[in-house]
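User: I'm putting together notes for a lab meeting next week and I want to include a structural view of one of the chains we've been expressing. I don't have a solved structure, so I'd like a prediction I can at least talk through. The sequence is below, exactly as it appears in our construct file.
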Amino acid sequence: MAIKSARGLESTSQKKYRTVLKNQFLTWTEHHKIFALNQILPVDLTRFRATWKNGESTTHRKHEMLMCFFGFCVRNEYLHKNPMEALSKPKTPDLVPTDYFRAEEFDKIVDATYVYDYGEEMIANLGHHGCVR
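Assistant: Thanks for the context. Below is the predicted structure for the 133-residue chain, given as structure tokens.
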């Protein structure tokens, strides 16, 4: 957690990591008599994941938190391989895509940028990001 703090993660993010890693995962591993990182197998992680009673978004976030945790363990040579890589990712939540502006809305935005002398710069930037049709 100190590393998360050093990376500038907000306290709410740190709390979520603490909840998943300490309160849930550590408790689960102790209950199943797993006391060392190198004892954790993909089948164990699959069993742990089966205990989650969350929606798609939360399940996806928890999966990513564990993936990051074990990635950290590999990078810092606590483990040789990330056991999470053997698990298939949970279903990604359906996200509503952000739509483009309607033509008349876009024209008004572009006209307003010229009032403030940002027109050419903004059009170039929007074009770069695929927003200009």
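A couple of points you could mention at the meeting. Helices lie at 2-6, 11-31, 42-50, 56-75, 103-115, 119-128. The chain has a mean pLDDT of 80.

User: Perfect, that's what I needed.
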